[in-house]
Amino acid sequence: MRVVILGGGYAGLSCALRLARRAKGRVSVTLVSASPRFVERIRLHEEAAGKKRVSRELSAMVAGTGVTLKIGSITDIDSRGEVHVGGERLPYDRLVVALGSRVDVDAVPGIREHASTLDPTSSAELAARLPAIAARGGRLVVIGGGLTGIEGASELAEAHPGLQVTLLSSGEPGEGFSEAGRAHLRAALGRLGVTLEQGRVRSLQAGAVELQDRTVPFDACLWAGGFVAPEVVRRSGLPVNTRGQLLVDPFLRSLGNVYIYAVGDVGAPVEPPSAMLMGCKTALPMGVHVAESLARAARGQPEEPFDYLDAGFCISLGRRDGLIQVMRQDGAPAKWVFTGRFAAWLKEAVCWGTVAALGAERAGWPLYRWRKTGRALAVGGSLQGARAA
Ligand SMILES: Cc1cc2nc3c(=O)[nH]c(=O)nc-3n(C[C@H](O)[C@H](O)[C@H](O)COP(=O)(O)OP(=O)(O)OC[C@H]3O[C@@H](n4cnc5c(N)ncnc54)[C@H](O)[C@@H]3O)c2cc1C
């Protein structure tokens, strides 16, 4: 069986590594990535703050596993059995789409021209510009009150004490958290000197955000207003939602073709757990689950539906503070939260743990396992959280 996996991020890589080990000799595994490097997207706000190199060679991460790595951009997904990588056709028996997401730069006019985003190239460019802006006491406006906006604003404010940072959002940052969680966010952002503003953005101009009722000037703007799937996914003709994510059944198979799976940010289950948010905390187990399904299929065994328990959100507020918002099983926030240095330490451990989990997959010590808990299946170890801003 020829399995082609599109995307060398958290979902694609975890799928490739698990499948190559579990179905050795039964399947050929080809991993296609536009970039030769695995990008730790969950650290891109750290990169924007000028702190860390956040990528590593994919070839080293799959070395010795039997995975064939192909570097090239997917230009067409043909659901009849082949994908186009540049000018080349790549046939498959089973396809796993793991192409991730990108910041939605078409949400309002002017983002492409006037704002940075927490995407790899843009983060590095922002990191290069901010020191000079901070040195003259300039203003950075971060737009988006979701988790990436909050992490970005706090990281950049802490890294550049001279910078005037404003976090602009349509609602209160951290909506959906408990009162204790929101109170800690307000206090932490205040301590870092981040000003909170609310308003609905109409457009971005050179040096100013246009709101319904006023303009907010900036020297630099970071747009953190939500994610969409790559355009090539929408062009496939397979069923997608308004964000361009592939609609998938409980087995993570496309509603339009049962031989095509979607994992990570690019997949949107239409049945429970359909409230799954984009995040590496979902991407890693989704990738592993599909690998297990394909290994079962190669042995002639039936597949099992994906199930997943979201333990909560773990966000950084600079390097010395954080917030862990535990979630109840019904999806509502628990009253209590963990904060401060312990939360910052745990978040760092979680970020480190995602890469360690991939290394462990390669070494044959899988960290992601499912265990039966009555009717449900629970997955341990994923507490980090992301939500479209
Ligand atoms: C600043 C920031 C902080 C975050 N923090 C957290 C957090 O704390 N916890 C959490 O759970 N999530 C967090 N997230 C979200 C998380 O990063 C994503 O949900 C996760 O990366 C999704 O994994 P993925 O494998 O689906 O996609 P990705 O990691 O984006 O990988 C996609 C892959 O597809 C490749 N690709 C894309 N298009 C093409 C193409 N046309 N051809 C070939 N290859 C292509 C890319 O090169 C990449 O290898 C954060 C995101 C950001 C930006």
From TrEMBL:
<dbReference type="InterPro" id="IPR023753">
    <property type="entry name" value="FAD/NAD-binding_dom"/>
</dbReference>
<keyword id="KW-0285">Flavoprotein</keyword>
<comment type="similarity">
    <text>Belongs to the NADH dehydrogenase family.</text>
</comment>
<keyword id="KW-0560">Oxidoreductase</keyword>
<feature type="domain" description="FAD/NAD(P)-binding">
    <location>
        <begin position="1"/>
        <end position="274"/>
    </location>
</feature>
<dbReference type="Pfam" id="PF07992">
    <property type="entry name" value="Pyr_redox_2"/>
</dbReference>
<protein>
    <submittedName>
        <fullName>FAD-dependent oxidoreductase</fullName>
    </submittedName>
</protein>
<dbReference type="InterPro" id="IPR036188">
    <property type="entry name" value="FAD/NAD-bd_sf"/>
</dbReference>
<dbReference type="InterPro" id="IPR051169">
    <property type="entry name" value="NADH-Q_oxidoreductase"/>
</dbReference>
<keyword id="KW-0274">FAD</keyword>
